[in-house]
Amino acid sequence: MNDKQLLRDTKPNDDQTKAKLENHGKVEAGDVAQRSDHQSQLDGPGALRPTRLYKRRWMIVLLFSSYSLSNSFQWIQYGIISNIFMKFYKVDAFTIDWMSMIYMLTYIPFIFPVTWLLDKKGLRVIALMATALNCAGTWIKVASVKPNLFAVTFLGQFCCSFAQVFILGMPSRIASVWFGSKEVSTACSIGVFGNQLGIAIGFLVPPMLVPNVDDMDQLAHHISIMFYITAGVATFLFIVVIFVFQEQPKLPPTQAQATARSIPPEQYSYTASIRRLLHNRPFILLIITYGLNTGCFYAVSTLLNRMIIYHYPGEEVNAGKIGLTIVIAGMVGSLICGIWLDRTKTYKQTTLAVYFMSLVGMIVYAATLSLGHLWVVFITAGALGFFMTGYLPLGFEFAVELTYPESEGTSSGLLNCSAQVFGIIFTICQGKIIDNFGTLAGNIFLCVFLLIGTIMTGKTFLTVNIKLYIDMFLFYSPHPERNIFH
User: Fold this and answer.
1) For position 70, what pLDDT does the model report?
2) Which of 94, 203, 239, 379 is the most buried (most CB within 10 A)?
3) CA-closest candidate to residue 378, choices 324, 334, 301, 439
4) Is the separation of the CB atoms in 17 and 11 below 8 Å?
5) Residue 40 to residues 47, 49, 58, 274, Cα–Cα distance (Å)
6) For residue 6, pLDDT beyond 70
7) What are the C-alpha distances in Å from 315 to residues 308, 320, 374?
8) Per DSSP, what are the bridge partners of residue 27?
């Protein structure tokens, strides 16, 4: 257990309370949760509260992953066959790029009201809004399969991008509300896993369902099939969420959640929480570094079709498979990182190592893309995805460590807001660089910013260590008012 968790879960020098907490135990699913006679006698701030782990927690996180999958699939379904949609709707490449970038742009202004709504209304309302908007967007797209209806398909994509605001920052919140302290990183990784699996399917399926044919009627038929399948899945998930998704378990999974539930709502201020987070220097550094890394991933994903077609003409299907390789490798990386964090709690060291390897992966990918061997691109793209996508749950979990006891939805929302801003900037800039100077220059552009992010991550590591030692000194000092750091 690291120092941060020790400060979070126990009182200093209170071995008796710690022993009681360990002996209290969590009631496993299927058992009856009862307070012991001795526990019921504990009063005051040190009182232990009943906790329980429910089997239903796995259904909740898997359901979340499923509708996150449905939404993230649509983020990339235009970009991975951008040349085909350019031909069908008679628009340019930059316009099709906006079908992906609208996901990023919509997130920026709406994340703050959505996070406020999460804190006021809870997870169930957020889940219903997400699936309802996602479902509506898919059916609008079904009605847009005509060359003169690009505005309609853009409206459908906007609805889906709005739904993403209710999805992207939720994994850490669901993990903390439903899962035990030894499971939260794994649960968060499963939540991110659904999003990444959706992107993987978005890379793979559209090139298979929508071949590059010249007959516009036949092309419209193929696009229509893809949109109907997407709408059917989204509608099914919306119905399931209505009947299955719960706000929270009856009993909290951890003492930290039990304490959070005991805080009266009127004592919580969303704006005050934002101000505290923006004065947290290590968290600000994490916001920037997370945005740089994830923004690079968004740019590579959005422009992947253009980069592959640039060097390997007519390989739309293989472009999708390379994207699939990136994300599948990233999902493996996400799960491995989540399990590793649950076992070791080495947030700072793991985050720095994975970030550095993302930089190495980007350099190798940039250097090998133009060699003329697709099998080499598959390997280097997979290595890039393993580390770059594997970093996503690390960022969420590290943010929770840096900002406890602030709301997980607020901290993850700020992280994702940064990612969207950098994603738009990097996608536009890299796209223009590719058009004017080629793919190598565009990828070097991303490598420079990943190098900056790696250096800043190392600085975050040092800042967190210094802050932790100061906090521990203040926490354990018998006379904090005499402390020069006070």
Assistant:
1) 94
2) 203
3) 324
4) yes
5) 8, 8, 30, 36
6) no
7) 7, 9, 10
8) 52
